[in-house]
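Researcher: We're reviewing a set of sequences before deciding which ones to prioritize for further study. For each one, I'd like a predicted 3D structure that I can look through quickly. This is Syntaxin binding protein 3. If possible, include the structure in token form so it fits the rest of the review sheet.
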Amino acid sequence: MKAIYFMTPTAKLFNKMKLYCGKYIRVCKELNISFLPQESQVFTCDNPGAFRSIYSPHCSQDKGNTLETLAAQIVTLCATLDENPGGKTQAQLLIVERGFDPVTPILHELTYQAMAYDLVPIKNDTYKYKSKDGSEKEALLNEDDQLWARLRHMHIAEVQIPKLVKEISANKKQPDGKITISGLSQLMKKMPHFRKQIAQKTVHLNLTEDCMNHFQKNVEKLCKAEQDLAVGSDVEGVKVKDPMRTLLPVLLHPHGTYDKIRAVLLYIFSLNGTTEENLNKLIQHVKIEEDREFILNWRELGVPIISSPSFFPMRRSSRRDRTQEETYSLSRWTPVIKDVMEDAVENKLETKEWPHQSECPAAWNGSGAVSARQKHKASSQDERRSGSRLIIFVIGGISYSEMRSAYQVTQSVKSCEVIIGSSHIVTPMELLDDIQALSKPTTTKETFTIVKE
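Model: Here's the predicted structure for Syntaxin binding protein 3, in token form for your review sheet.
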């Protein structure tokens, strides 16, 4: 009989196993895995509560223990990946706090995965939708779904599910009219062995339609203002001189409260903080007088919200020049972590900002010697795994767009695998709720004892 036990290795538990099971055990192997591999290049410590423990003023006594626990979990990741100080090719480990880039996790993203998790109610990676007959169906969005793995990082404009279905339909001599849910149902009946393939496309046809419905109804009008505020210039490259003029149409439009809060935050971030008088006006306009913590509590992350005469602006890292890169007009912002990844690979990280960094292997950027055996298939994932790694850990949650950046940099560098992790993964609304809750006192748990009569 084979058995796997998931447990925290305490002396008491181990002694019990040794006492009662020892004579039956032929082989015992201990796997040091205190993390969750969410995706092929993404891991979490499965600890959403770490955000409050680290940043809430009401949980200052928990901060040290939480950080120690996260550090121990990162160590188990390194051990599992066989990364150790004595290794031939040492990995680079960079740790940053959530406050280092407050913009990325609250922007409306238009790449498939990030957009879906932001706009569509997806819980535990499970997407629920209704079929043509009205019955509710579920689909798990993970890497077992090859179509999901292929499409998740694409811009929504490039996710062409109907085109993929038409290709299958044409190959099987089916009429290639307009693709509908009922049409897919008929296709599945006629081609039983293609059922799984078509079922996946049915899921993503529903999901992309959900995303586009939300986009056309509310998000499209928000995106231009958000991008202008985040980037600091419009689509023509003209600098935004008056951010308030960019924000005002968003506030005047009947958008939802969360959307307006996100826009207000982007406005404040663009100014590196605003006056208390101006902030109060914004809060009144959004009508969150009783919930101003959505905005004020960003200070707990070290993000400037209110400026004052004695206020010294937070030094911003210089961004990489991406003016020559082709982008969609509503997707011009690049996560700061992507700059960090690329700078790390090219050994361009500033020592003032990263005083404890070690120099990356020369082979990462092609300046070092690489064996001929490694060159002929440098782009394969297995090949990268045999080379160097860049591991980035974000304290306080990562967004789906930051996860995407790890794959993009890995694909472009090829000689290095970038792995990104955090205490947990956050959507914009989840992060805002976590921010608001920071100022709430910790509720004491009631305990009771059952007495046998």
